[in-house]
Amino acid sequence: MSDFDDDASDLEESPFFVQSLAKGLSVITAMGTQHSQVSLADVARATSLTRATARRLVLTLERLGYVRGTDGLYSLTPKVLELGFSFLGSTSIPEAAQPHLEALSRSVGESTSASLLDGTDIVYVARVSARRTVSLSIDIGTRLPAYATAMGRVLLAALPDRELNEMLAGLTLRQLTERTIRSKDALHAEIDRVREQGWAMVDQEALEIGLLSIAAPVSRAGRVVAAINISSSANRVAAVDLVAEFRAPLLATARAVSAELEHRDLR
Amino acid sequence: MSDFDDDASDLEESPFFVQSLAKGLSVITAMGTQHSQVSLADVARATSLTRATARRLVLTLERLGYVRGTDGLYSLTPKVLELGFSFLGSTSIPEAAQPHLEALSRSVGESTSASLLDGTDIVYVARVSARRTVSLSIDIGTRLPAYATAMGRVLLAALPDRELNEMLAGLTLRQLTERTIRSKDALHAEIDRVREQGWAMVDQEALEIGLLSIAAPVSRAGRVVAAINISSSANRVAAVDLVAEFRAPLLATARAVSAELEHRDLR
């Protein structure tokens, strides 16, 4: 079942909901999960749409240049990428952060990133890889659960109490590594600590054992809008040294990005 | 006027064209050109839709999580990025190329990339930046005119004659730098040369003066599906040295990526 079919009765009652837009977007995401060309029957199956509906949507996407077809087999075109990058065009945060993250990465010799909160996930919007960490595949658009990451905890710490409590209540903590935080009480206490100290450190709780991250908030007009981090390997640096060495340059960079955003808003 | 309104009469005649999908996608791209939140009136103006239609589409996108609204002002959410990355999920080329491009970049100390042909443009689908070239902003999804780039000429050279001639006939050559190729005859001669030698070199014709690139084709099942390149700066290396130094490792990497794609198809 696709997302919008889950509560179709509710949605169909709304005169504002445009079913064919929702269905068309589900066709794009469904085609993105296939590593090869797909038939109209494949699309219909993956989206729970009728074959006739799938056909009209795929042909419309083909006409618009988002899909290419040969001999009844269809695939997405690179034009779909532009659709995604619409988001990056709509926010000045990646552009403002990138040069500062590059300078920070050069100065500390580690990878740096910026991310935003989207629901209960963080989404990477900028990333500078230190050459030595090429093995770890994090790219713009990568999503990770906020609760298990340093950037996520910085962003959760900035939520108003009511919103934070609602989110925590609905959350399921998964053991992403053997060190991922296990209880919501411990998570809440950790978030309180982040609120007090103004930065977060996560020691091998997300992605893979061996990964350390320290993060700080970026503000715009007094509101936290993003987080930036420095990530390193437990093989190279102990958690306590990560904080001692990187906290000051990280906080300075966070202030610089915040100032840059303020400056852009005034232009 | 938005794209699909240009020949609305033609399209409206087709029973297969889903107008509201086309309009919804145009809302996403229009919102991506704004660097801030927009009102429904802004969306209507940018897309040439009525205010009522714009409202239904924006509310549908909000319901689906692609748009976020507060106080009548709307912006895209990072979920839109996922839509774009659908394309990357649908092709195994970036994944197959990335480790080889990283090894190549490390061994030659320059930036490396992979791109696909989309219409008359190349679109970057993988990129490894040598630390020293951070100033130049090329990212996944970046589009450049094929005729002015080395990767583009490799991809044009792989087109059947009829398709190539049709494309060249419809093309307008723009002077991207003072060195960009000026005549279609010269371009055709250059493409013939690329066909013979199996690689292309472009000396400061695209993007900016100072940029050199050498490119080679990647094949899958005997058909060219992508191009990879090494790009460098005219300050560091002369065009003739670029070829002498980098051609062999570039061609070896192109063969390795082609073999990797073949291997994946056989699995």
Automatic annotation (TrEMBL), chains A, B:
One of its GO terms (biological process) is negative regulation of DNA-templated transcription. Keywords: DNA-binding, Glycerol metabolism, Transcription, Transcription regulation. The keyword Transcription regulation applies. Residues 18-78 form the HTH iclR-type domain. Coiled coil: none annotated. SMART domains: HTH_ICLR. Residues 79-263 form the IclR-ED domain. One of its GO terms (molecular function) is DNA binding. It holds the Pfam family IclR_C. May be an activator protein for the gylABX operon. This is Glycerol operon regulatory protein. It comes from Herbiconiux ginsengi. The lineage of its organism: Bacteria, Bacillati, Actinomycetota, Actinomycetes, Micrococcales.
